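Note to self: keep these together.
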Amino acid sequence: MTHLHIKVPYMARVEGEGALDIVVEDGEIKHLELNIFEPPRFFEAFLQGRSYMEAPDLTARICGICPVAYQMSSVHAMEKIVGIEISPEIRILRRLLYCAEWIESHALHVFLLHAPDFLGYESAISMAANPDLLPAVEMGLRMKKHGNELLAVIGGREIHPLSPTVGGFYRAPTKKELMALREDFEWGLQASIDTVAWTATLDFPDFEPDYEFVSLSHPDEYPMNEGNVVSSKGLDIPMEAFEEFFINDHVAHSNAVHVHREHGGAYNTGPQARVNLNLDKLSPLAKKALADTGIPFPNNNPFVSIVARAVELVHAYEEALEIIDSYVRPQPSRIIASPKAGWGCHITEAPRGILYHRYTLDDAGLIQTARIDAPTAQNLKRMEEDLWAFVPQVLEMSHEEATLRCEQLVRNYDPCISCATHFLKLNIERR
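Structure:
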Protein backbone atom coordinates (compact mmCIF):
# COMPACT_ATOMS: atom_id res chain seq x y z
CA MET A 1 0.00 0.00 0.00
CA THR A 2 1.34 3.43 -0.95
CA HIS A 3 0.52 6.12 1.57
CA LEU A 4 0.90 9.89 1.30
CA HIS A 5 -0.01 12.23 4.12
CA ILE A 6 0.22 15.94 3.37
CA LYS A 7 -0.14 17.82 6.64
CA VAL A 8 0.32 21.57 6.88
CA PRO A 9 -0.24 22.53 10.55
CA TYR A 10 -0.18 26.28 9.81
CA MET A 11 -0.77 27.74 6.38
CA ALA A 12 1.85 30.37 5.56
CA ARG A 13 1.36 33.57 3.56
CA VAL A 14 -2.38 33.82 4.15
CA GLU A 15 -4.23 36.17 6.47
CA GLY A 16 -5.38 34.28 9.55
CA GLU A 17 -4.80 30.75 10.82
CA GLY A 18 -5.71 27.53 9.06
CA ALA A 19 -4.32 24.10 8.27
CA LEU A 20 -4.42 21.54 5.49
CA ASP A 21 -4.70 17.78 5.99
CA ILE A 22 -4.75 15.27 3.10
CA VAL A 23 -4.40 11.49 3.26
CA VAL A 24 -3.91 9.44 0.08
CA GLU A 25 -3.80 5.63 -0.04
CA ASP A 26 -3.00 3.70 -3.25
CA GLY A 27 -3.59 6.80 -5.34
CA GLU A 28 -7.02 7.49 -3.83
CA ILE A 29 -7.81 10.43 -1.57
CA LYS A 30 -9.19 9.08 1.70
CA HIS A 31 -9.33 12.30 3.70
CA LEU A 32 -9.10 15.99 2.80
CA GLU A 33 -9.82 18.97 5.02
CA LEU A 34 -9.01 22.63 4.80
CA ASN A 35 -9.22 23.17 8.53
CA ILE A 36 -10.11 26.64 9.76
CA PHE A 37 -9.31 26.57 13.46
CA GLU A 38 -8.89 30.28 14.15
CA PRO A 39 -11.39 31.12 16.91
CA PRO A 40 -14.81 32.35 15.78
CA ARG A 41 -15.48 36.04 16.34
CA PHE A 42 -19.30 36.31 16.40
CA PHE A 43 -19.51 39.66 14.61
CA GLU A 44 -23.14 39.20 13.63
CA ALA A 45 -24.07 38.57 17.26
CA PHE A 46 -22.37 41.56 18.84
CA LEU A 47 -23.75 43.89 16.16
CA GLN A 48 -27.19 43.25 17.60
CA GLY A 49 -28.46 46.19 19.62
CA ARG A 50 -25.89 48.60 18.18
CA SER A 51 -26.79 51.68 16.17
CA TYR A 52 -26.84 51.40 12.39
CA MET A 53 -24.27 54.21 12.34
CA GLU A 54 -21.78 52.00 14.21
CA ALA A 55 -21.92 49.13 11.73
CA PRO A 56 -19.30 50.47 9.25
CA ASP A 57 -16.67 50.98 11.94
CA LEU A 58 -17.42 47.71 13.72
CA THR A 59 -17.46 45.52 10.62
CA ALA A 60 -14.26 47.14 9.33
CA ARG A 61 -12.50 45.42 12.23
CA ILE A 62 -13.22 42.05 10.65
CA CYS A 63 -10.24 42.64 8.37
CA GLY A 64 -7.17 44.86 8.39
CA ILE A 65 -6.45 44.14 4.71
CA CYS A 66 -9.87 44.95 3.25
CA PRO A 67 -11.73 47.12 5.80
CA VAL A 68 -13.13 49.34 3.03
CA ALA A 69 -15.10 46.44 1.58
CA TYR A 70 -16.77 45.84 4.94
CA GLN A 71 -17.49 49.54 5.37
CA MET A 72 -18.92 49.87 1.87
CA SER A 73 -21.19 46.80 2.01
CA SER A 74 -22.41 48.02 5.39
CA VAL A 75 -23.06 51.66 4.46
CA HIS A 76 -24.87 50.77 1.24
CA ALA A 77 -27.16 48.37 3.08
CA MET A 78 -27.92 50.95 5.77
CA GLU A 79 -28.56 53.68 3.21
CA LYS A 80 -31.15 51.47 1.54
CA ILE A 81 -32.96 51.02 4.84
CA VAL A 82 -33.03 54.67 5.94
CA GLY A 83 -33.59 56.03 2.44
CA ILE A 84 -30.38 57.92 1.67
CA GLU A 85 -29.51 58.75 -1.93
CA ILE A 86 -25.88 59.78 -2.19
CA SER A 87 -24.61 62.43 -4.59
CA PRO A 88 -22.55 61.58 -7.71
CA GLU A 89 -19.51 63.17 -6.03
CA ILE A 90 -19.78 60.87 -3.01
CA ARG A 91 -20.29 57.88 -5.28
CA ILE A 92 -17.13 58.56 -7.29
CA LEU A 93 -15.09 59.18 -4.14
CA ARG A 94 -16.17 55.74 -2.90
CA ARG A 95 -14.83 54.20 -6.09
CA LEU A 96 -11.52 55.97 -5.51
CA LEU A 97 -11.45 54.57 -1.98
CA TYR A 98 -12.05 51.11 -3.45
CA CYS A 99 -9.17 51.62 -5.93
CA ALA A 100 -6.91 52.32 -2.95
CA GLU A 101 -7.88 49.08 -1.24
CA TRP A 102 -7.49 46.98 -4.39
CA ILE A 103 -4.02 48.46 -5.00
CA GLU A 104 -2.68 47.77 -1.51
CA SER A 105 -4.26 44.32 -1.27
CA HIS A 106 -3.41 43.09 -4.77
CA ALA A 107 0.18 44.34 -4.58
CA LEU A 108 0.61 42.55 -1.25
CA HIS A 109 -0.75 39.29 -2.64
CA VAL A 110 1.02 39.28 -6.01
CA PHE A 111 4.52 40.09 -4.80
CA LEU A 112 4.72 39.05 -1.16
CA LEU A 113 2.28 36.17 -0.75
CA HIS A 114 1.88 34.37 -4.08
CA ALA A 115 4.96 35.03 -6.23
CA PRO A 116 7.26 33.04 -3.89
CA ASP A 117 5.22 29.92 -4.74
CA PHE A 118 5.90 30.26 -8.45
CA LEU A 119 9.56 31.19 -8.06
CA GLY A 120 10.50 28.53 -5.50
CA TYR A 121 11.10 30.76 -2.49
CA GLU A 122 9.98 30.35 1.09
CA SER A 123 8.99 34.01 1.38
CA ALA A 124 9.33 37.44 -0.17
CA ILE A 125 12.21 38.04 2.24
CA SER A 126 14.19 35.22 0.68
CA MET A 127 13.16 36.47 -2.77
CA ALA A 128 14.59 39.88 -1.92
CA ALA A 129 17.94 38.26 -1.13
CA ASN A 130 18.23 37.44 -4.85
CA PRO A 131 19.55 40.58 -6.61
CA ASP A 132 17.55 39.67 -9.73
CA LEU A 133 14.27 39.60 -7.78
CA LEU A 134 14.88 42.44 -5.33
CA PRO A 135 13.49 45.06 -7.80
CA ALA A 136 10.22 43.12 -8.06
CA VAL A 137 9.83 42.98 -4.28
CA GLU A 138 10.62 46.69 -4.00
CA MET A 139 8.11 47.47 -6.74
CA GLY A 140 5.40 45.52 -4.92
CA LEU A 141 6.11 47.27 -1.64
CA ARG A 142 6.01 50.67 -3.32
CA MET A 143 2.63 49.93 -4.93
CA LYS A 144 1.24 48.70 -1.63
CA LYS A 145 2.41 51.96 -0.07
CA HIS A 146 0.51 53.89 -2.75
CA GLY A 147 -2.72 52.17 -1.81
CA ASN A 148 -2.13 52.82 1.86
CA GLU A 149 -1.34 56.50 1.24
CA LEU A 150 -4.54 57.00 -0.76
CA LEU A 151 -6.52 55.27 1.99
CA ALA A 152 -5.01 57.68 4.51
CA VAL A 153 -5.83 60.76 2.41
CA ILE A 154 -9.47 59.73 1.90
CA GLY A 155 -10.14 57.82 5.09
CA GLY A 156 -7.92 59.46 7.69
CA ARG A 157 -5.61 56.50 8.21
CA GLU A 158 -4.27 53.48 6.35
CA ILE A 159 -5.90 50.71 8.41
CA HIS A 160 -9.58 50.85 9.34
CA PRO A 161 -10.31 54.26 7.78
CA LEU A 162 -12.26 56.71 9.94
CA SER A 163 -14.01 58.91 7.40
CA PRO A 164 -16.37 56.54 5.49
CA THR A 165 -19.84 56.54 7.04
CA VAL A 166 -23.50 56.03 6.26
CA GLY A 167 -24.38 58.83 3.85
CA GLY A 168 -20.85 59.54 2.63
CA PHE A 169 -17.73 60.73 4.43
CA TYR A 170 -17.18 62.65 7.65
CA ARG A 171 -14.56 64.55 5.69
CA ALA A 172 -13.80 64.52 1.96
CA PRO A 173 -10.25 65.20 0.80
CA THR A 174 -9.33 68.33 -1.10
CA LYS A 175 -8.24 68.25 -4.73
CA LYS A 176 -4.78 69.42 -3.62
CA GLU A 177 -4.42 66.46 -1.23
CA LEU A 178 -5.23 64.00 -4.00
CA MET A 179 -3.06 65.71 -6.61
CA ALA A 180 -0.08 65.32 -4.29
CA LEU A 181 -0.29 61.57 -5.00
CA ARG A 182 -0.54 61.90 -8.76
CA GLU A 183 3.13 61.53 -9.68
CA ASP A 184 3.45 58.33 -7.65
CA PHE A 185 0.31 56.94 -9.26
CA GLU A 186 1.66 57.66 -12.74
CA TRP A 187 4.68 55.55 -11.79
CA GLY A 188 2.38 52.93 -10.30
CA LEU A 189 0.33 52.67 -13.49
CA GLN A 190 3.41 51.75 -15.51
CA ALA A 191 4.61 49.44 -12.72
CA SER A 192 1.26 47.64 -12.72
CA ILE A 193 1.44 47.16 -16.51
CA ASP A 194 4.92 45.69 -16.03
CA THR A 195 3.49 43.47 -13.29
CA VAL A 196 0.96 41.96 -15.69
CA ALA A 197 3.73 41.13 -18.15
CA TRP A 198 5.88 39.68 -15.35
CA THR A 199 3.16 37.46 -13.87
CA ALA A 200 2.35 36.14 -17.34
CA THR A 201 5.85 34.59 -17.52
CA LEU A 202 5.28 32.43 -14.45
CA ASP A 203 4.88 28.67 -14.77
CA PHE A 204 1.22 27.69 -14.41
CA PRO A 205 0.30 24.05 -13.70
CA ASP A 206 -2.09 22.49 -16.19
CA PHE A 207 -5.33 22.57 -14.21
CA GLU A 208 -8.71 23.86 -15.43
CA PRO A 209 -11.76 22.73 -13.42
CA ASP A 210 -15.29 23.37 -14.61
CA TYR A 211 -15.91 26.44 -12.48
CA GLU A 212 -18.93 28.55 -11.87
CA PHE A 213 -17.47 32.05 -11.54
CA VAL A 214 -19.56 34.58 -9.58
CA SER A 215 -19.16 38.36 -9.41
CA LEU A 216 -21.05 41.60 -9.63
CA SER A 217 -21.73 43.05 -13.06
CA HIS A 218 -22.63 46.65 -13.81
CA PRO A 219 -23.84 47.83 -17.21
CA ASP A 220 -21.51 50.82 -17.40
CA GLU A 221 -18.41 50.18 -15.28
CA TYR A 222 -16.07 47.58 -13.83
CA PRO A 223 -17.84 46.27 -10.71
CA MET A 224 -16.87 47.57 -7.30
CA ASN A 225 -19.84 48.87 -5.31
CA GLU A 226 -22.88 48.16 -7.47
CA GLY A 227 -24.50 45.74 -9.92
CA ASN A 228 -26.33 42.46 -10.22
CA VAL A 229 -24.88 39.12 -9.11
CA VAL A 230 -23.98 37.14 -12.23
CA SER A 231 -22.24 33.86 -12.93
CA SER A 232 -20.54 32.09 -15.80
CA LYS A 233 -23.41 29.58 -15.80
CA GLY A 234 -26.22 32.01 -16.42
CA LEU A 235 -27.12 33.43 -13.02
CA ASP A 236 -28.23 37.08 -13.10
CA ILE A 237 -30.03 38.27 -9.97
CA PRO A 238 -30.41 41.45 -7.93
CA MET A 239 -28.50 41.61 -4.66
CA GLU A 240 -31.75 41.25 -2.72
CA ALA A 241 -32.13 37.68 -4.03
CA PHE A 242 -28.68 36.55 -2.83
CA GLU A 243 -29.90 34.36 0.03
CA GLU A 244 -32.28 32.50 -2.28
CA PHE A 245 -29.36 31.27 -4.37
CA PHE A 246 -26.43 31.13 -1.91
CA ILE A 247 -26.69 28.93 1.19
CA ASN A 248 -24.61 28.72 4.39
CA ASP A 249 -23.48 25.26 5.47
CA HIS A 250 -21.63 24.41 8.68
CA VAL A 251 -18.97 21.71 8.45
CA ALA A 252 -17.42 19.88 11.37
CA HIS A 253 -13.79 20.67 10.61
CA SER A 254 -14.15 24.43 10.17
CA ASN A 255 -14.88 27.46 12.34
CA ALA A 256 -16.22 29.05 9.16
CA VAL A 257 -19.23 28.16 7.07
CA HIS A 258 -18.95 26.96 3.50
CA VAL A 259 -21.25 29.03 1.30
CA HIS A 260 -22.59 27.16 -1.73
CA ARG A 261 -25.10 27.61 -4.53
CA GLU A 262 -28.68 26.58 -3.82
CA HIS A 263 -28.16 23.32 -5.74
CA GLY A 264 -25.12 22.49 -3.58
CA GLY A 265 -22.36 23.51 -5.95
CA ALA A 266 -19.15 25.34 -5.12
CA TYR A 267 -18.22 28.52 -6.94
CA ASN A 268 -15.27 30.85 -7.45
CA THR A 269 -15.39 34.54 -6.60
CA GLY A 270 -12.58 37.08 -6.76
CA PRO A 271 -10.35 38.81 -9.34
CA GLN A 272 -10.42 35.92 -11.81
CA ALA A 273 -14.21 35.80 -11.68
CA ARG A 274 -14.45 39.58 -12.11
CA VAL A 275 -12.08 39.63 -15.08
CA ASN A 276 -13.74 36.62 -16.72
CA LEU A 277 -17.23 38.08 -16.37
CA ASN A 278 -16.41 41.76 -17.00
CA LEU A 279 -13.70 41.78 -19.66
CA ASP A 280 -15.44 44.50 -21.65
CA LYS A 281 -15.57 46.83 -18.62
CA LEU A 282 -11.82 46.84 -17.91
CA SER A 283 -10.00 50.13 -18.42
CA PRO A 284 -8.24 50.57 -21.80
CA LEU A 285 -4.72 49.99 -20.47
CA ALA A 286 -5.86 46.99 -18.42
CA LYS A 287 -7.42 45.43 -21.53
CA LYS A 288 -4.22 46.04 -23.50
CA ALA A 289 -1.98 44.68 -20.77
CA LEU A 290 -4.05 41.51 -20.62
CA ALA A 291 -4.16 41.11 -24.40
CA ASP A 292 -0.39 41.57 -24.60
CA THR A 293 0.14 38.52 -22.38
CA GLY A 294 -1.39 36.19 -24.95
CA ILE A 295 -3.15 34.34 -22.11
CA PRO A 296 -6.75 33.67 -23.14
CA PHE A 297 -9.56 35.04 -20.98
CA PRO A 298 -12.07 33.92 -19.81
CA ASN A 299 -9.70 31.47 -18.14
CA ASN A 300 -10.46 28.55 -15.81
CA ASN A 301 -6.96 27.88 -14.46
CA PRO A 302 -6.94 29.12 -10.83
CA PHE A 303 -3.16 29.52 -10.91
CA VAL A 304 -3.66 32.24 -13.54
CA SER A 305 -5.54 34.26 -10.92
CA ILE A 306 -2.26 36.06 -10.17
CA VAL A 307 -2.45 37.55 -13.67
CA ALA A 308 -6.05 38.63 -13.09
CA ARG A 309 -5.00 40.40 -9.88
CA ALA A 310 -2.23 42.19 -11.75
CA VAL A 311 -4.71 43.27 -14.43
CA GLU A 312 -6.95 44.73 -11.72
CA LEU A 313 -3.94 46.65 -10.42
CA VAL A 314 -3.71 48.36 -13.82
CA HIS A 315 -7.43 49.10 -13.79
CA ALA A 316 -7.31 50.51 -10.26
CA TYR A 317 -4.39 52.81 -11.03
CA GLU A 318 -5.91 54.01 -14.31
CA GLU A 319 -9.32 54.70 -12.77
CA ALA A 320 -7.76 56.35 -9.73
CA LEU A 321 -5.84 58.77 -11.94
CA GLU A 322 -8.98 59.61 -13.91
CA ILE A 323 -10.92 60.31 -10.70
CA ILE A 324 -8.12 62.42 -9.23
CA ASP A 325 -7.89 64.52 -12.39
CA SER A 326 -11.64 65.20 -12.56
CA TYR A 327 -12.28 65.28 -8.79
CA VAL A 328 -14.89 67.62 -7.41
CA ARG A 329 -15.02 67.72 -3.62
CA PRO A 330 -18.47 66.61 -2.36
CA GLN A 331 -20.47 69.43 -0.78
CA PRO A 332 -21.79 68.25 1.60
CA SER A 333 -19.59 65.23 2.11
CA ARG A 334 -22.32 63.40 4.04
CA ILE A 335 -26.08 63.04 3.58
CA ILE A 336 -27.89 62.76 6.93
CA ALA A 337 -31.15 60.86 7.48
CA SER A 338 -33.24 59.75 10.44
CA PRO A 339 -33.23 56.12 11.55
CA LYS A 340 -36.17 53.88 10.75
CA ALA A 341 -37.13 50.24 10.82
CA GLY A 342 -36.47 48.08 7.80
CA TRP A 343 -34.46 45.43 6.01
CA GLY A 344 -31.59 46.00 3.62
CA CYS A 345 -28.69 44.19 2.02
CA HIS A 346 -25.79 45.03 -0.25
CA ILE A 347 -22.84 43.39 -1.99
CA THR A 348 -19.55 44.98 -2.94
CA GLU A 349 -16.42 43.50 -4.49
CA ALA A 350 -13.75 43.01 -1.86
CA PRO A 351 -10.27 42.28 -3.25
CA ARG A 352 -11.02 38.58 -2.73
CA GLY A 353 -14.57 38.56 -4.13
CA ILE A 354 -18.17 39.43 -3.38
CA LEU A 355 -18.98 40.50 0.19
CA TYR A 356 -22.62 40.28 1.29
CA HIS A 357 -24.13 42.22 4.21
CA ARG A 358 -27.76 42.06 5.33
CA TYR A 359 -29.32 43.90 8.29
CA THR A 360 -32.69 44.49 9.93
CA LEU A 361 -33.22 47.63 12.03
CA ASP A 362 -35.89 48.65 14.53
CA ASP A 363 -37.55 52.08 14.69
CA ALA A 364 -34.63 53.52 16.66
CA GLY A 365 -32.12 52.34 14.06
CA LEU A 366 -30.76 49.56 16.28
CA ILE A 367 -29.55 46.40 14.56
CA GLN A 368 -31.80 43.41 15.20
CA THR A 369 -30.20 40.84 12.91
CA ALA A 370 -27.13 40.70 10.67
CA ARG A 371 -25.63 38.34 8.14
CA ILE A 372 -22.17 38.76 6.63
CA ASP A 373 -20.81 36.39 3.97
CA ALA A 374 -17.10 37.02 3.43
CA PRO A 375 -15.45 36.10 0.11
CA THR A 376 -13.18 33.52 1.72
CA ALA A 377 -16.16 31.72 3.27
CA GLN A 378 -17.69 31.62 -0.20
CA ASN A 379 -14.47 30.21 -1.70
CA LEU A 380 -13.74 27.57 0.96
CA LYS A 381 -15.85 24.83 -0.64
CA ARG A 382 -14.29 25.63 -4.01
CA MET A 383 -10.78 25.42 -2.50
CA GLU A 384 -11.48 21.95 -1.11
CA GLU A 385 -12.95 20.75 -4.42
CA ASP A 386 -9.88 22.11 -6.22
CA LEU A 387 -7.67 20.08 -3.89
CA TRP A 388 -9.67 16.90 -4.48
CA ALA A 389 -9.14 17.35 -8.22
CA PHE A 390 -5.52 18.57 -8.05
CA VAL A 391 -3.89 16.16 -5.59
CA PRO A 392 -3.74 13.22 -8.07
CA GLN A 393 -1.46 15.40 -10.25
CA VAL A 394 1.15 15.75 -7.49
CA LEU A 395 1.29 12.16 -6.23
CA GLU A 396 4.52 11.42 -8.10
CA MET A 397 6.26 14.47 -6.65
CA SER A 398 8.33 14.44 -3.51
CA HIS A 399 6.38 14.95 -0.31
CA GLU A 400 7.85 18.44 0.07
CA GLU A 401 7.00 19.50 -3.49
CA ALA A 402 3.49 18.05 -3.30
CA THR A 403 2.89 19.93 -0.07
CA LEU A 404 4.09 23.21 -1.59
CA ARG A 405 1.88 22.74 -4.65
CA CYS A 406 -1.20 22.18 -2.48
CA GLU A 407 -0.43 25.27 -0.42
CA GLN A 408 0.02 27.22 -3.64
CA LEU A 409 -3.40 26.09 -4.82
CA VAL A 410 -4.99 27.46 -1.67
CA ARG A 411 -3.08 30.72 -2.02
CA ASN A 412 -4.56 31.16 -5.50
CA TYR A 413 -7.60 32.48 -3.63
CA ASP A 414 -5.62 34.82 -1.37
CA PRO A 415 -7.73 33.51 1.53
CA CYS A 416 -8.43 35.84 4.41
CA ILE A 417 -9.21 33.27 7.06
CA SER A 418 -9.78 35.87 9.76
CA CYS A 419 -12.64 37.28 7.67
CA ALA A 420 -14.32 33.89 7.53
CA THR A 421 -14.16 32.78 11.15
CA HIS A 422 -16.95 34.96 12.50
CA PHE A 423 -19.58 32.73 10.92
CA LEU A 424 -19.72 29.89 13.41
CA LYS A 425 -23.17 29.54 14.96
CA LEU A 426 -23.00 28.96 18.71
CA ASN A 427 -25.37 26.26 19.90
CA ILE A 428 -25.46 25.47 23.61
CA GLU A 429 -27.48 22.46 24.68
CA ARG A 430 -28.39 22.36 28.36
CA ARG A 431 -29.85 19.31 30.04
